[in-house]
Amino acid sequence: MLVCVALLVYVADQLSKAWVVANLDERTVNPVLGELLQFVFVRNPGAAFSLASGSTWIFSIAASLVTLFIILFAHRIRSIGWAVLFGMLLGGTLGNLTDRLFREPGFGVGHVIDFIQVWGFPAIFNIADIFIVSSMGLFIILTLKGIGMDGTRQTTEPKSDGSVGTAINDEAR
């Protein structure tokens, strides 16, 4: 599941960026749904909101470490929800890392292609960013529901002996 989600996110991100580079002029507003949703092609040398644009190489290293961590940690995941979460994070991270490694101005310092602008939101972003942020939302949901990466769910339901906090296999529910 993790690999399938990661591939889907990565391919969607890279195809959308290829389309943007081939079809849109930089910094030109292209309305999709009026002012609510617009495509504006920008090359982002930094992080969100173009912060730390002089430190692109740091983001390349951080993204490489996140990717390595997910790959090494993946065999421990037994929950579909956590597999989806890490697939979303891996696909998004690889999408932006690919830009940083292989786009202008050079290896490790390339600019990320951003193009989605939503009315009232102060930044322009891309498909990878959507899935990275969404994975963090899913992280919060899974954590609040008490679902562990091994597929068990922490619950406060009392057991027959009166104790609470037992781990229940999520798939048994």
Automatic annotation (TrEMBL):
Region called Disordered, residue ranges: 152-173
Biological process according to GO: proteolysis
Primary location: membrane
Key word Magnesium present: no
EC number(s) given by UniProt: 3.4.23.36
InterPro entries (UniProt xref): Peptidase_A8 (IPR001872)
RNA-binding found in the keyword field: no
Parts forming coiled coils: none
Keyword entries, A-Z: Aspartyl protease, Cell membrane, Hydrolase, Membrane, Protease, Transmembrane, Transmembrane helix
Locations listed in the record: Cell membrane
Active-site residues annotated for this sequence: 114, 129
Cellular component per GO, a single term: plasma membrane
Pathway: Protein modification; lipoprotein biosynthesis (signal peptide cleavage)
Protein's membrane topology: Multi-pass membrane protein
Family: Belongs to the peptidase A8 family.
Task performed by this protein: This protein specifically catalyzes the removal of signal peptides from prolipoproteins.
Protein's name in the database: Lipoprotein signal peptidase
Species this protein is from: Homoserinimonas hongtaonis
Encoding gene per record: lspA
